[in-house]
Amino acid sequence: MVGEINPTLRRRKLAAELRRLREEAGLHGVQVARSLRWSTSKISRLETGQVAPSAKDVALLLKHYGVDDELSRLLLELAHGENKGWWDAYADVFADAVVELFGLEDGASLVRAWGSFSLPGLLQTRDYAEHMGYLARIVEMAPPGKIERRTRARLRRQRVLMKDPPLNYSVVLDEAVLRRRFGDADAKLMSDQMSHLMKMSDMPNVSIRVLPLEQPHPTDIANFILLSFPAMPVLGDISREAVYFENHPVFTLSEDEETVLQYSLVFDGLLGQALSEEESRAFIASLAGL
Fold first, then answer.
1. For residue 251, which phi and psi values (nearest 5 degrees)?
2. Which residues touch 127 (CB under 8 Å, ≥6 apart)?
3. Residues 6+ apart with CB under 8 A from 220
4. How confident is the model at residue 185 (pLDDT cuts 50, 70, 90)?
5. Entry pTM
6. Which residues does 223 contact at the CB level (< 8 Å), separation at least 6?
7. Rounded CA gap, 225 and 170, in Å?
């Protein structure tokens, strides 16, 4: 199991465990830094996950905290893993929170998403994703090369739906998202996108539900993504649940329990008003002319 944890989750799990172990030892970061002759900023960066700790640093901390053999072995195994994921290669074209989202998505067991303005990235065709990238030029001066790299990254992240074991993905789409026109006047982009949604809805790990405009809408919140993660022996949950939302150019990724709970309740409300999966498929098929 440890070997299957991706670099983003390795870094975050190690940070959380190192922070927990220090607190259980009754130590302050300043005390640990002084004992190991490190800077306090190094302790802070390790415990907040800003940097991936080296196996050597983890070993020193575990010895300092007197950690037992089994837990020590698992944490050192985490520390010996890769420090980079495919998403890190795109850090120059996305905000930090977006890059972190890609890493979390790659290691999640369940993702729930609400699409109120545009389709979630995991369901977009290349043409749709590319067009959304060009729309961003309204608020930023992004050259074509940057937009192309963003499009490639968006398509690359979709592989989480086909991996083994596959990500369980549940999405609710506002009807307005399906009717909102993007692309050229011939409507081919949207027609192809509707056909793609039909294909995706056939996947056993993907649930697509539509919230009709005529149904009572339980929220006016824009697009958001909720991420849940598996647990592992001894170490427990790989990561706390997280929620991602954005209001361009601000991108927010939060693990705050109250915030995550609030968004989870909103998602449950959306599910309660949405069409069933079969009804949703029929609705999308009608828009696609199938």
1. -120, 125
2. 183, 189, 192, 193
3. none
4. low
5. 0.92
6. 113, 114, 115, 116, 117, 118, 120, 245, 246
7. 10
